Amino acid sequence: MVVVMQTNMGEMENITVRPKVTDAKGILKQNREFLDYFWDIAKPERDIRLKAVEDLIEHLKQSEKADELKYTLKRLVEGLSHAREDSRSGYSVALAQLLSVFEEISLKSTLDKIKEKHNLQTAKKKFIRSTAFGNFFGVLSLSQSTRLHKEPQVMLECIQVLQSLSQYREHLKDLPRKTMVDILSETSTDVFEEVLFSALKSDLTSALNTPEQLELLLVALQKFPSVLKPKKLKKLLGSTTVITKENMPKLVNVLKMAARSVKKENSLPPVALDLLQASLREENFEMFWTEAIIKGMMSEMPGPTHYLSFRLLGASLPLLSVPQLEFVLSGDVMRHYGEHMLSAQSPDRFRFAPEMEKYVSEFMQGCSDADKQLTVVLSFTQLTNQGYPVVPSYWRALDHMVPSALQQYVDWLLEAFCKPQLENCLDFSTRRQKGNQDSRLESDSCVARFRKWIIPRLTFIVENHQIKKQEDLVMKVTRFVFFHGFFNVKKPTPEIPETAQALSVPIDQQTRATLSGAFYGLLQGLNTMAVIGDSPEEEGVNSRRILGVKADGTMWIYCLVQYADMLLNQSKYVQSIQTLSLEQRQGWDSMLESVEALRGKAKKSSLPKHTAFQHLFLLVGIQMFKAPEESLELLNDLRTSMEKAEAKKSKKKKATGKSSEEEPHWVEVIVEILLSLLSQPSRLIRSVCNAVFGRICPHLTQAALSSILNVLDPNKDEDESGVVVTDEKEKKTKQKEEEEQDDEEDDEEDEEGSDSSDDDDDDDDKEEEEEEEEAMEEGGEVDQNFRLELMKVLQGQNALATEEDGSDEEELDDAAMMKLDGSLASLFLEQKKRIQAKKDEKNRISKEKVLVRDFKIKVLDMVEMFLNKQGSSALVLGMVEPLLGVIENGMSSETIQQEQDYLRKAADIFKNRLCRGKYYCKEVDGREAELHEMFERLIGRAQKLPDSSLSLYYFSAALYVLKVLRGGVNEQDSENAPSEAKLMGKVDVERVTTCFRDALTSFMMRRKGPLTGAMFIDLFTKFPVFCVNLLDTAVENITGGRREHQQGQACAMVLKALQSKDVKNLMSDVRRTELHQKVVDQLAKSFENVQCKNKTVRDMMVKALELCQFLVKTVQSQKMQINLELLQNFLKSMNVEGTMQKPGQMEDMYWSVMKLFGIRKPQIEKVKKVVEAKQTEETTKKKKGFLPETKRRKNRKKPTVLEGQETPASIKTPEGASGEEGKKKKKKNKKRKHQGEEVTQDQPATKKTKTQPQQKKTKKKGGQHGDDGN
Question: Ranges of Low complexity compositional bias (predicted)?
């Protein structure tokens, strides 16, 4: 939009015209680039600052200009006091680099410039902070230039500047002292003694006053011990050492000050660690720790002083010897740390445990001494609260433990489990526990708590892959957990090492259950554990990615089964907690025989079925200690299936066809056993079942796969699908209910024979009424059978009033009433039982649904594994429709979380593992007709579904079937065949094209349907052959679609087809030209008399214009013989009334198309007339004190008063007008309303102005005169 403004030419003449600036030599450009370095140095981004400093130094090296170097030094010195912190640090780094590179710049002169520019004596009060920072960063630049140690006098001046900055602690904090320490650490002994010592003498003398001065002294002592000898130190401090009893109070105060100074930073102040190191050098560590830390710091309330002590404890671990570690880790600091661990469990409290774990981890990682590691780990293990250690069982600090220390630590844990010596532990109780007498636990309870902590610590050591350990250690721990979980010791024997340690306190049932669960958890970890060690044999096994075996190839679970068998045979020394019957023991022995037979066959020929059966036998056998009856049944099934699997081929050939059909394949039997095992809620069983199923996937048959898919089939009952839900809890609850029912019947008989109180009867009546109300709510109305029973009871006792009764005076006697009460009570009790039975049945059904759904999720894991391992198998084709049935049923089922997870998992498997899988079946010989029928069923079902999201899965499945049919092409047989046959393989192109054409026509003609345009666009992209065959139908529907939405989708399909190179290659030039002409004609018809009345039409127009744009570009670039005049005329007619000149997506697309025809969007020129603008300004601009012309009263004059006199000219003064109008408005408001005249709200009378007091008095008088005048 061009705006033309008219200006006064006289004013333009007075403006001086500046000459045009030229930069022929590029001097301005060079200066601009040079100055940009300083702008970048001041930016907040660190990377940009460092890059600018590097570029600036490089520029100065190359230019070698003295004026630029001088300007750089001046600019950097000035920037040291910048307002932003990042900018100050940037200029400081740049100055340090400048001084380091250009040694011709004198440090003395630079320091003088810094003092002169940032003079604290002459700076104003508001610039004191910036000036102090300028001095500090200037000295910091000099110290970082690596040249300061060469000029001692300059170093002395820098120290003096830093000393003078100590009074500005509110701004600089302890930065000057830290810089002084850094300077000292880089200073030689001679320079310190000759130059700096005299300057620092005052600070060293008052070292026990502040943390900064003490840190300065400690650094000097550490750096220059030859200068600060005991005699000289005695002159400074009054003692030859720092750590003395006389200095302890001052040292404690300094440490407290340091602790409070880092309260927000959560860090250890350097002075504390330096002080600890000084105590170690002076051999006064125990006195320092006892007097300063325990008696001084820990005497305060929990807070910064305690946290400093904890941090000092963690930081001191690498510095201490073994006796010192034992002294520190068994004192009050550790006890207070344990109390903090318990008190900090609430989410709003500060937790120090992560910091301490980091300190210990760093110590363990950097320390190779096994004794030190063992001391630290044992000390934290023995920090207990009523027997339970405060550190977690799963402690990452153990990751870096050396094997020798780990072996000793595991031995200690095993011994502590058998004979806990709690008196050696650092046990404590919180204040609440001390105050509560009931919370004091007995010694046996403390032992049980300690054992419950040891069990997960042992399992953590075995399962953690970061801890380096040996196979003997893993087996030792696992055997120990198994032995104490399922066996008791009768008599110790050297053949069983676990019997050597007698239990000081018997193991209770809860600890036994914890051991049992820990053992099966260990089996879970061992089953997925890689080979331990670094030997060549172990590396070879790991290269094959075999899990769950030892270095020699033996399975961990096999070793444990052998150990369990040895324990069962040693009944003289040990006793099993779970007593096995004779039949169960025979099943155990037969299991071992079967495993040994399988191991022998596996050595000769390692077939997957041998390993699979071996896994299952061992898994089910080890489960016998937990559930012997169920394990025995599974073992029998396994034995029979193995016998069938190991049958010789000759016998199979001699067998009749009938018998061979009746006997299931060995894979089918294993699959059934796996399904039955998966119904149990155990992670171990689930992992082993997945491992076994992964081994037998290549041998899976159609019947075995059908048994898996039948579980997922929602149309079959649970009994038919093979889902058997068994829950031991339900059996126990049923038995309890039967016992309770018997007890209630006995109680009922007792109540009938005894007297009951009225209150009890009232309570029973209330309960019965509540039960009746519940029955009404559940069933909608009272059960008719119950109503009839109640009528019979009342009529039998003559308690029901009838019409024949003449009076109500006759009443039942006491005996009859008692009998009636008993009958009613029994009747209502039966009704209560029926209601409770309905509730129990409802709960049982809901629990079964949860169990069944969880079981089906596990079965989906098997399906996913089969697709990953055998995606190219022909059996995969049988999974398509069952998975679609699961998805369809899941979308229409309940919306609980478990159902959603099940549906999401099934949809993910179908979409990502099946349809988008890398490998798919390519051999479909003899199944072409079956697959075409499946394809037609899928497309037909996709058109009948009510939801497009579900229809998308069926449409994707149809495309997957086409991909399978296309993948089975044989190039030799189709060399002379048409191109479509070469591309589509075994696909019946005409049959499939007809099916797709019907679906496309249904999509275009139906008002509401499940199909979408994206589905057909996906079809066109994946199968160009069908795209070519369906293009005519899509082009016809550009104007023939039922609604605008379908027409727009047709345009999108045609556009996608025309953009495809494969479609272009499949079509001849003549057909392409005819197709383009046909599309042009259809677009011209769609643009004729189009009215953009709603959003749907506009969206359709956008897609049509996109197609039109591509079409016109193609025609013009390839110079095709196509007539575009009709299309151009219709496009021009769309903008006859200027409707396409508004902003919008459709309008922009329209003008991009018209631009191809050489027609550009006209530019609107908006002309503003200056005269009209001035008139509008005069009309709109209000003068103070006046009303607009339309708001003035014309029937009377308004006299105004100014300074007590009435003058007509006084109306021009705004003050008088505002005051007069305000008074009139207030006093004549009612009268004006009565007369019906207009009263303005925006007149300037409401605005108060500043006037003199005399004017206010005259205004009052003037108002009175005005009123009289009216």
Answer: 1241-1255
* Separation between Cα atoms, residue 902 and residue 920, nearest integer Å: 24
The set of residues, in sequence order, having a beta carbon less than 8 Å from that of 331 and lying 6+ positions away, is 289, 294
Token output for 681: 């809620």
- Distance of CA 124 to CAs 129, 136, 672, Å? 10, 18, 91
Q: Are 153 and 126 in contact (CB under 8 A)?
A: no
CB neighbours of 542 closer than 8 A, spacing ≥ 6?
530, 531
Considering only residues 1173 and 38, tell me which one the structure prediction assigns the higher pLDDT: 38
Residue 1040: pLDDT above 80? yes
Strands 383-385 and 426-428: parallel
d(CA 972, CA 982): 10
pLDDT at 731 over 50: no
User: 């009050």: which residue's tokens?
Assistant: 332
From CA 625, how far away is CA 621, in angstroms rounded?
8
* pLDDT band for position 477 (cuts 50, 70, 90): very high
Greatest Cα-to-Cα distance within the chain, rounded to the nearest angstrom: 140
SS3 call for 83:
coil
Please report how many Cα atoms fall inside a 13 Å half-sphere around the Cα of residue 1089, on the Cβ side: 1
Q: How far apart are CA 542 and CA 832, in angstroms?
A: 64
β 1165-1167/2-4 pair status: parallel
Q: Where are the alpha helices (DSSP H) in 913-1011?
A: 928-944, 948-967, 979-984, 989-1005
- DSSP structure string for 28-48: HHHHHHHHHHHHHHTSS-HHH
Q: How far apart are CA 488 and CA 515, in angstroms?
A: 13
Q: Are 399 and 467 in contact (CB under 8 A)?
A: yes
Using alpha carbons only, what angle is made at residue 83 by residues 80 and 85, rounded to the nearest 5 degrees?
75
Beta strands per DSSP E along 516-675: 574-576
pTM of the model: 0.66
Burial category of 1105 from C-beta neighbours within 10 Å (exposed 0-12, middle 13-18, buried 19 and up): buried
Q: In 1065-1086, which positions are buried (b, 16+ CB within 10 angstroms) versus exposed (e)?
A: ebbeeeebbebbbbbbbbbbbb
pLDDT-wise least confident of 118-122, 183-187, 1038-1042, 1224-1228: 1224-1228
Domain ranges of the chain: 665-720+820-918
d(CA 4, CA 1170): 10
> In which region does residue 173 sit, left (phi positive, over 0), alpha (psi from -120 to 50) or beta (all else)?
left
Angle 802-807-810 from CA coordinates, rounded to 5°: 95
Give the DSSP letter of residue 1265: H
Q: Are 158 and 183 in contact (CB under 8 A)?
A: yes
How far lies 857's CA from each of 38, 369, 687, 905, in Å? 64, 50, 14, 8
Long-range CB pairs of 1049-1054 (<8 Å, 24+ gap) are 1049/1003, 1049/1004, 1049/1012, 1049/1013, 1049/1016, 1049/1103, 1050/1004, 1050/1013, 1051/1100, 1051/1103, 1051/1104, 1051/1106, 1051/1107, 1052/1013, 1052/1017, 1052/1103, 1052/1106, 1052/1107, 1053/1013, 1053/1016, 1053/1017, 1053/1020, 1054/1079, 1054/1107
Fill in the amino acid letter for 237.
L
Share in percent of the chain as helix, strand, coil (round to 5): 70, 0, 25
How many Cβ atoms from other residues are within 10 Å of residue 859's Cβ? 21
Sequence-ordered strand ranges (E) for 476-588: 487-489, 574-576
SS3 389: strand
- According to DSSP, the residues that pair with 488 across neighbouring strands are 575
Contact in structure between 725 and 848 (CB atoms under 8 Å)? yes
Residue written as tokens 């009054």? 238
Q: How confident is the model at residue 918 (pLDDT cuts 50, 70, 90)?
A: confident
User: Rounded to 5 degrees, what angle do the CA atoms 35, 40, 41 make?
Assistant: 95
Q: What are 384's strand-pairing partners? A: 389, 427
